[in-house]
Amino acid sequence: MSKAKLTRNTAAEEAAIQRGIESDPDNPEWTAADFASARPFAEVMQKRMGRPPKENPKEQVTMRYDAEVLEAFRATGAGWQTRMNDALKTYLKEHPLKAA
Questions:
Q1: Suppose 30 and one of 34, 69, 94, 96 were both cysteines; which one would form an S-S bond, judging by CB atoms 3.0 to 4.6 Å apart?
Q2: pLDDT tens for residues 55-91?
Q3: Where is this region: Disordered (predicted)?
């Protein structure tokens, strides 16, 4: 395996990069006042990141099904787990379970 040799920027290239940085209006260099007024990320971001929590989240469990049941649902293609869940919900609507 050959290792690529890194070449450093020339002084002229570095100067051009620095001029580009200094002229970028969207990302000015921070001043001492900017650093003094900075606050931690967690303090600034009050809202939860990512997807909002679901009202009725699904629960992950481990179950064992007969091979022919899984084969039949998998044969329906992508989304077979959702269809299996829907089939179980339909069954519960049609056959209400009695509390023990």
A1: 34
A2: 888 899 999 999 999 999 999 999 999 999 999 999 9
A3: 1-31
